[in-house]
Fold:
Amino acid sequence: MAPTLKEATGNQSSWDTLLPDLPKGPLCRYRRKASFNWKEMAVFLDGEDIIQLKNRIFSALESDPLFAHHPGEDLCREKYQELTFLRCKRLFEYNFLTLQEIRENPLKILCLLSCMGMYDWSPSLQYLLHCGVFAGPILSASERFADFVKQIYEMKVFGCFALTELSHGTNTKGIRTTATFDPSTQEFIIHTPDFEAAKFWVGNMGKHATHAVVYAQLYTPDGQCHGLHSFIVQIRDTKSLLPVPGVMVGDIGMKLGQNGLDNGFAMFHSVRIPKENLLNMAGDVTPEGRYSSSVKDAKERFSAALGSLSTGRIFITAISITNLKLALSIAIRFSAARRQFGPTDDEEIPVLEYQMQVDLGREIHALCAASKPLVSWTAQQAVQECREACGGHGYLAMNRLGDIRNDSDPNCTYEGENNVLLQQTSNYLMSWMNCIRDKAPFESPLGTIKVLQDYHHILGWKFTANSVEDCMDSSVPLAAYKWLVCYLLKESDLKLRKEKQSGRSDFEAKNNCQVYYCRSLAIAFIEQTALQRYHDYTHDPSIPSTLQPVLKKLSALYGLWSLSKHLAVLYQGGYASGEQAGKFIQNAILELCYRLKDDAVALVDVFAPPDFILNSPIAKANGELYKNMWAEILQGSKTLNRPSWWAELCINKPVIGRLRSKL
Amino acid sequence: MAPTLKEATGNQSSWDTLLPDLPKGPLCRYRRKASFNWKEMAVFLDGEDIIQLKNRIFSALESDPLFAHHPGEDLCREKYQELTFLRCKRLFEYNFLTLQEIRENPLKILCLLSCMGMYDWSPSLQYLLHCGVFAGPILSASERFADFVKQIYEMKVFGCFALTELSHGTNTKGIRTTATFDPSTQEFIIHTPDFEAAKFWVGNMGKHATHAVVYAQLYTPDGQCHGLHSFIVQIRDTKSLLPVPGVMVGDIGMKLGQNGLDNGFAMFHSVRIPKENLLNMAGDVTPEGRYSSSVKDAKERFSAALGSLSTGRIFITAISITNLKLALSIAIRFSAARRQFGPTDDEEIPVLEYQMQVDLGREIHALCAASKPLVSWTAQQAVQECREACGGHGYLAMNRLGDIRNDSDPNCTYEGENNVLLQQTSNYLMSWMNCIRDKAPFESPLGTIKVLQDYHHILGWKFTANSVEDCMDSSVPLAAYKWLVCYLLKESDLKLRKEKQSGRSDFEAKNNCQVYYCRSLAIAFIEQTALQRYHDYTHDPSIPSTLQPVLKKLSALYGLWSLSKHLAVLYQGGYASGEQAGKFIQNAILELCYRLKDDAVALVDVFAPPDFILNSPIAKANGELYKNMWAEILQGSKTLNRPSWWAELCINKPVIGRLRSKL
Structure:
């Protein structure tokens, strides 16, 4: 979970070898004022190994004509899809990470994904969907797919993951595609009852996939349904890429973003597949057609079938953080170079990466279910604020904040709609109320719910800071968050019991407890967890003394800023009282923004990718924003052209009101 | 300002004539449950006259092949710009409103703009920029432009409004284009000193405009600068549409939205224009080159020169409200027809029934808000919430929430960046502090600052509601808002004085008072104003008793929901105390959402345009969301096609790791 603390190794000359100097220009003014060395920070946070991997990826893309940018060109969606596929294919040829390297440091996959995504999410996601999301459940099924897995990694087949249907996404139990076993041929018959049950939204399915992992209700010959299972189904011929008989497959059309990626639909008309294509992680069928499963409980079987979704949520957290880095790089460099606006906008905070990488059962699930909404919403809102902070120039497509926002947007929806996910986290937290009441011990392998152990004690805490200066450490918001989690848990539990006592069904009662109660609880819990980690990290004595002050300020600012959104509850529940408490928090936020202002450009230098990857004229490292924009504009092939329809303006004049009589 | 109360005239049969029945389908369930008749509400709110105008515009567009939709077609930007221009030109031929009609009811212009915008903002804005923003300052200058105005409305010329420069937008005083008078030829010489002073972002300038209203610093031959003035400058030949000598003009490229509109740039290389082309509303130059002005004060002259920007802000408010109507029409109809989960496995309930979803309804009330930052931010955030509330299907371009969001986005920036505008409002409010201290009388022709008259008295108010039911009327949030405005005014004033006392310059002191003080004050003030209007409107005894209950509920919900964002300040400043106050407000919001849930579909029926205009398969009036989407998808010309680059997948396989050695 906690990022491993690394010794800040090396010295200026070793940092210079890893990270070349940034070009001189208007931003130097701020770089000189920074309280720390951005190269030292980058080496400390990432380590040499990761920086070298980043350099390798970034320079490969920059040197490869297939990845060249085409400024001013209006790429139509079809061309963009073709280019995306060619770029995805090229990643197989680069093979940036070997299995060996991944085994040594699995974080490198996130690094690869993020570096690729900084260039463009469409090819990165196409690659991830094939190698990860499609391959994942096949890898975890059983040995019998070893050959097929080899074909996947050699791109002999191309895959997609088909769960969602047109009328069912979030409610996966409502999936209506069926897989009926026919013992006479030892086959499953995959069938779509009607168009509302068509598989829908499936990434890679629109144009490319030859095979799909299809989720369907498994029926045995006795007519019994055994719930959701997954199957490998071929959908297109691998030689001709034409649909196989019985499969109607196509592209679902233009989206708000990620348009290089081909999301598709498919309907199956009694398509027969070999019995072996059942991904038998939770259950299997005998040749005679009897269902057998090592997992007796239907609910658990369901969870096992969908287990791979947690990985997806971790990826989305990483994607959102990457988007946040891009948007901040653009907005902060722009704000620092754009003289009209002054140094930096003090509302938006450079949020350093708070890493979340986990490994255990229910707790993992509860954490992923809440970190994904927290980070995807934070990114979405921050990207929009960055867009606005860059004014009109932020609205110009070439500066990229639009693509970042539009590509980031679906993170709030796919792999579990954010509000639905938060409900799973609050359910998990509420499930501990019995232990709290009975003073029974807690099982928290990751320690994230340790806070509940002191529930009764913490509920008696009060806000005690006596000055703004008192609030300048993240321990102050952290204490407030602990109280907040306990208080919201108490209130949610009370509210739920009241709803049930008034005769409402479980379903209705839970539904009525979301807004202001369970939803707030889940958000406060995940914010507290993130802050705890970041607080511990920044206060560790092994952090180089050159970097610790700025990291501690960021930790305090993140904590106070997040907390300020809950200020009303702190007052309402009696944790805070009087005019001063709120003012201390607000003034500490303002003071921290002021103190961090001169570090903002250097902080962005730590995580900004090279100019070629960042690809935003207003955000180039040299800070010459107008020159860079002007150059980009004049590169457009038709920038100065007369429009081809000029005669419609000059010659064919409208007859005013000609059509009025027809109204 | 306040909408005129109209008698709800007519009866069912007259309503039916004006407003045809909506098609039957899954939404009927909710329509039957509505507490009011949507047709009666529409007639009451708009009046017959406006409804007839709407019908005329909507049906003209639907019957005109030039306005046909092309589902599944990937319109490139150039084609989109051409189509936009042709559609704009067609509006001259329809001439929907005569000058006579506009004089009788100026609100009809907003109606026309909104109806057109509901179809597509690009042609509507092109038309508005020419007929309004370009023509406006010319109309208000002097009689000598009468002939030119005639040419404008006959589209013999095509115009744009050129104020912003590449490096100066918000700070208009920093404009660097010059206009130097040459008495020897009786001409002004328009000149751009360097590319950073190029006119930039100018709508209609990219491809179409033949003339521009150009803002420049006026210099007399004695070398004196007389500040910003506007001039008519020809930029393209009216016969050939080629640039005139000395003008370099072009398109600034792709934007995040509104891509049918051609935003452009221009640089002037000592371009000579006749003396008469000075728009002499505030100042003029004698033939000898002496400057003369009826407005002596330079500041006032500056205001006069930019006076037309206020109109622009009113239009933006109308645009934002229209976008909100579109997004809500889509999200609420979708939510009412989309079923997901349910109390039992075989009974799924419409997502509208979920508490989180109903929160959307809260935003309905922002419709009556009255300021550009408030409304543009509300619209931007609400459209994003609508997008998320529609899940994945909201991310599909065909359902239009993306275009609405992307086209709505610049409203936060142009015609005055929102935060800068709010500063102007707070400055105005702070200017009354002396009157408050001296107990001097107030001048408030519109009565919006009447609240400050009781400043000292109001500061002593407390939250007094004793139950949730007590809070169900907008008088409760309204009273809280009055306290809030006075309290934030007091605090902002204190903070400013403290900053000044500590030796900070005026600029610095004001800058340090924005966050948590002046900015909050301006927002609270405009929310209070909007709520006061809406409260008075909905409580007027002349409102039909059939409509009043739902309107009053909306008023209370809008007030409470807006207020809930300020809850911390209510506690902090001592207006509220104890756990109950906050709970009453929160529970009243939830209860109102619950009571309004069954009215949501009918409320949307009141303002939703016809299906052809709304153009969103998931939001059609019949509510058959899957059928409508499926039909739209299959209309795409290449939906089922094999990609042209299929061999790149099937035949030309990647050699895994081929390029790794080159890294």
Q: What stands out?
A: Chain B touches chain A through 136 residues (CB under 8 Å).
